[in-house]
Amino acid sequence: MYIELMKMMTHSSSKDVRRTCIDRIKAPFSPITLLLLGKRLRDKDDEIRRQAYVKLTKSKVTIEHFPCQEQRMLIIKEGLTDQNPHVREACIDFLKASLT
Questions:
Q1: Cis peptide leading into 31, omega within 30 of 0?
Q2: Are 84 and 50 in contact (CB under 8 A)?
Q3: How far apart are CA 45 and CA 13, in angstroms?
């Protein structure tokens, strides 16, 4: 069932399905789940990107949990330069929580 949830979060064209999947996954996250959740930080929908940052923050995931330096830099760069102010704010909250 969890694998199906990950597939739907990654491949569904419906933002409502992707949103529900993000809401349903529970920490602690496996490396694969973290990778797939990280991809939602670049989702085409603003609310999905914001929700992914919020999920990471609430789950006490920090930027250091992402093993690849390039992925960390991409998360920071894209989050802080997102066109949507709510996504930028969620990214800032995630980064602040990573520092404490």
A1: no
A2: yes
A3: 11
Chain centroid, CA 20 distance in Å? 13
Q: Which of 70, 95, 100, 69 has the alpha carbon at shortest distance from 82? A: 95
**E runs forming strands in 7-54:** none
**Percent helix, strand, coil in the chain (nearest 5)?**
75, 0, 25
pTM of the model: 0.93
Side chain identity at residue 100, one-letter code: T
Amino acid found at 35:
L
Q: d(Cα 18, Cα 22) in Å, to the nearest integer?
A: 6
| Contact call for residues 36 and 63 (beta carbons, < 8 A) | no
Instruction: Give the per-residue pLDDT at 2.
Output: 80
Residues 6 or more apart whose CB falls under 8 angstroms from that of 99 comprise none
